[in-house]
Design a protein that fits this description.
The complex is a heterodimer.
Chain A lengths: L1 H7 L2 H41 L9 H4 L2 H26 L3 H31 L8 H34 L3 H34 L1
Chain B lengths: L15 H24 L4 H23 L9 H32 L1
Helix pairs in contact in B: 1-2
Amino acid sequence: MIATDASCISEASIEEFEASNAVANQALGFWLYLMSDLALFAAIFATYAVLGHNYAGGPTGRDLFHLPYAFGETMLLLFSSGTCGLAMLAMHDGRQGRVFTWLAVTFLLGLGFIVMEVNEFVTMIVGGSGPSRSAFLSAFFTLVGTHGIHVAFGLIWIAVMAGQVVIKGLTTPVQSRLMRLGMFWHFLDIVWVAVFTVVYLMGVLR
Amino acid sequence: MSETDISSTGASRGSFRSYGAGFILSVLLTTAAFGLVMSGALPRSALLFGIFGAAVLQILVHLHYFLHLDASSAMRWNVLALVFTVLILVLFVGGTLWVISNLDYRMM
């Protein structure tokens, strides 16, 4: 009886099982990378927490941060997380065109976030509040800049995946990469929640 | 390469409903946190409690609705890795603040 059951497992289903197992392993491996990235952010947050009060007679968070502006940045990133989710849903439905559209929208929203952040940085540096002004500003530019660089690399990744969706279609490797891209993008939004709370909201409260 | 259904990996794929719920909760929590600070209606300690509470809730919302973390066996290793990393995070940030504030106190 058992032998009969075993012989029922076809070559194809074994291959399918191995493919799905590989996808799960890749997702777990990428998750472990994200956790190590979280440890990196923990170190930078610790640095910011220590240096955040050392203004060296320069401007404080209250002078520099404009909350409606930070709220706008936050909303852009949050909406991009939502559209990224819609891209994942379209992927599970096998709708190639929709995946491309939602990836494009996610890209534009993320680009808007980066443009706002660069604009904020340039305004601060031109106004004499660059990273060399005080320990607080060094820590600020390191923390917010590190997150910004992550988002910028995420944008490159989104562009590459949009190209792969068009050229290769929704093959298993492409779907697996899209899943990891989604994990990366949602992870960056989580880090941003900590950034806007600790840097912007607390900076204005001080 | 054939098109294998990727949802057979065991992890939840999410639905329009779950993404929508997560998104609306996130917008509400973000607006509440910014609104609290911008209105300045509460005393400082209550504000701090409010914004950190909102941040923790929003992070949990993101983990559950966007990254599909739950107690299922498919997600066990992801959750374990996260719990361990949070421990490291608390040691990093808490330990640094403790040591440096101690140093600050002794150097005064």
